[in-house]
């Protein structure tokens, strides 16, 4: 019982997470100064371009970091049935869905001054929305009342299948006619030096924030797993004790 109590009250933070958290705070302050103060307005979009410094990093983290970890964790879970990989995939998906929602919201806000409307059924927007729905479905599976092994297996399969849609998101502006701009980074980028540095710094900042969140969410998931395992072990031990000590006469069964 004491082991279970210690597990429940154990902190989700660690020395590493505290260091990452401090780095994330410092990077965020510097990013805000770059994005809101030092970086100039864009010629055509004026100050609306400042949404760019949130929209693009959110997309990078969600699509290329968080959901890639989900893919790797899902594959490893199916190969090894490892609780570590299962919980890591789950934690990364939760945070990835959060960043994906931020991509859609900032994209809509940016679309109003750029396209004149909040939403267009553009290939990039549509495929990103499908991504959000797929990984939300992954989280829904994790909440289903199923045997834990079955639930984890189904979630892992969806985590692998859903990654294929990220390829569509990546190449949607090239495969179909799209009003969405092409790739931001490349040899022919039209961003000036300060704007380009601001975008890269924003990506680094969001990566630090993602890492901090992932550490905490994974540790919390691990504590929950340990608590549920301890509770199950206690229940089994109690049941075995009942069987080894039959009730005395007059006691209820």
Which fold name fills CATH's third level, the topology? Four Helix Bundle (Hemerythrin (Met), subunit A)
Head-to-tail CA distance between termini: 25 Å
Proportion of beta-strand residues: under 5%
Report the radius of gyration as a whole number of Å: 23 Å
Pick out the low-confidence regions: 1-10
**Relative helix content:** over 70%
Total domain count = 1
- Helical element count? 7
Set down the secondary structure blueprint.
Elements: H1 2-9, H2 15-38, H3 52-80, H4 83-115, H5 123-142, H6 148-175, H7 193-244
Helix pairs in contact: 1-7, 2-7, 3-4, 3-6, 3-7, 4-5, 4-7, 5-6
What do these coordinates show?
The chain is mainly α. It has a single domain, classed as Four Helix Bundle (Hemerythrin (Met), subunit A). The protein is built from seven helices and no strands. The protein has helices at residues 2-9, 15-38, 52-80, 83-115, 123-142, 148-175, 193-244. Helix 3 packs parallel to helix 7, helix 4 (83-115) runs antiparallel to helix 5 and helix 4 (83-115) runs antiparallel to helix 7 (193-244). The longest helix is centred in the last third of the chain and has 52 residues, at 193-244. The model is unreliable at 1-10 (pLDDT under 50).
How would you summarize this macromolecular structure in one to three sentences?
The protein is mainly alpha-helical and 253 residues long. It has helices spanning 2-9, 15-38, 52-80, 83-115, 123-142, 148-175, 193-244. Helix 2 (15-38) packs antiparallel against helix 7 (193-244), helix 3 (52-80) runs antiparallel to helix 4 and helix 3 (52-80) runs parallel beside helix 7 (193-244).
